Amino acid sequence: SRLGTLKFSTSELTAPASNPFSTAFDNQESAPRNVAIDKDSAATMKLFAEDPFGGPKTVYYERGALGAGSYFFRCDIHTEMKGTLTVK
Questions:
Q1: CB of 20 within 8 A of CB of 61?
Q2: pLDDT digits (tens, 9 = 90+) for 71-88
Q3: Mean pLDDT of 45-70
Q4: What letter would DSSP give residue 29?
């Protein structure tokens, strides 16, 4: 494992406000990972999460509509893997 260098390929995602959207997560490592969306970086109000999975494997996350704003995403297992989801 490359502990200390764990990160998503992007730290910025965008989605349309008030419309469902999907995100592809391509995990090329055997370690289990996921993508969780929280209201903010405190990660105390989870809005979406699926179970972690090991790779290599690609999973498509289907998400219902979110209101316009800035949200936080991360891996629940490797919390240093994180970023911002902008919904507009």
A1: no
A2: 999 999 999 999 999 999
A3: 95
A4: S
Is the pLDDT assigned to residue 60 strictly greater than 90?
yes
75 near 3, Cβ under 8 Å?
no
The total number of residues written for the chain in this structure: 88
Nearest-angstrom CA–CA distance, 88 and 14 = 8
Confidence of residue 5 (pLDDT cuts 50, 70, 90): low
Instruction: Collapse the DSSP code of 79 into the 3-class scheme (helix H, G, I; strand E, B; otherwise coil) and give the result.
Output: coil
Cα end-to-end distance, the chain, whole Å: 36
pTM of the model: 0.88
Residue 76's alpha-carbon distances to 44, 82, 86, in angstroms, are 12, 9, 19
Compute CA distances 45 → 10, 34, 53, whole Å: 22, 17, 22
